[in-house]
Write a structure and sequence with these properties.
Layout (H helix, E strand, L loop, with lengths): L2 E5 L5 H12 L2 E4 H10 L3 H10 L7 H11 L7 E4 L5 H10 L4 E6 L2 H9 L1 E3 L6 E3 L23 H21 L4 E5 L4 H22 L1
Parallel strand pairs: 1-3, 1-4, 2-3, 4-7
Antiparallel strand pairs: 5-6
Helix pairs in contact: 2-3, 4-5, 6-7
The protein binds adenosine monophosphate.
Adenosine monophosphate binds next to helix 2 and helix 3.
Length: 211
């Protein structure tokens, strides 16, 4: 089973993907995380991606699509795509080599997103993500490192990223309308996970009949 997670930065699609990964034994592919790891390791892909990411822009489609194609050579598992596709061109290309069974759009009001993103902090060593509410001392609870603000969580980049997301969100939702489910993540995570469980219950029944 392959799942696409749609949602703006800060919507919580990464957290929900982590839940799906552990509960349904799927592989979680976060394109943002792969790109950030490449930047950290100063690979040629990382050097190219940094120019776009730090300004809040999208990395060119062909770069990201090739990266995904490479990962999908492993056909032994189902995937959760988190942060991919980001636009209709990527969605159409993905459709040529991978069947998508479910698309979950994680929706959160813009004001809440802005607050979440501006209080987001990340550990530079182990990549654990916190908010200022969960780590007011700005120290990583796992490895003790001083937390940092991601370059693309700075105010100008946040605004640009949300605008870019909003431009393509409805087009992607229309494209995936036959397999689309919407989940509101404006409140607590527990309520959201309950909705996701219900969706998965329904989808799994259909999926197992087909396969
Ligand atoms: P994310 O962690 O998903 O918010 O992604 C962080 C940044 O990585 C984005 O703002 C983009 O610059 C880049 N990125 C991640 N996924 C994609 C994608 N599918 N297409 C283009 N750029 C991407």
């Amino acid at each position: 089973m392959n799942i696409v997670m749609l949602g703006a930065a800060g919507s919580g699609k990464g957290t929900i993907s982590d839940y799906l990964k552990s509960e349904y034994s799927l592989k979680h592919i976060s394109t943002g995380e792969i790109l950030r790891n490449n930047i950290k390791m100063q690979t040629p892909l990382g050097r190219l991606a940094a120019e776009y990411i730090n300004d809040g822009n999208l990395v060119p489609d062909e770069v990201v699509v090739d990266m995904i194609k490479d990962i999908l050579k492993d056909k032994s598992t189902g995937y959760i795509f988190d942060g991919f596709p980001r636009n209709i061109n990527q969605a159409k290309q993905l459709n040529e080599f991978c069947k998508i069974d479910l698309v979950i759009s994680v929706e959160v009001e813009r004001e809440i997103l802005m607050n979440r993103l501006s209080s987001r902090r990340v550990c530079p060593k182990c990549n654990t993500t916190y908010s200022l509410q969960t780590a007011p001392d700005e120290i990583c609870k796992t490895c003790g490192a001083k937390l940092i603000i991601r370059d693309d969580d700075k105010p100008e980049s946040i605004k640009k990223r949300l605008e870019i997301y909003e431009q393509s969100a409805q087009i992607l939702k229309d494209y995936y309308k036959n397999v689309l489910k919407i989940v509101d993540n404006s409140k607590d995570l527990e309520t959201t996970i309950k909705s996701v469980k219900q969706i998965m219950g329904g989808i799994q029944k259909i999926w197992f009949v087909k396969h």
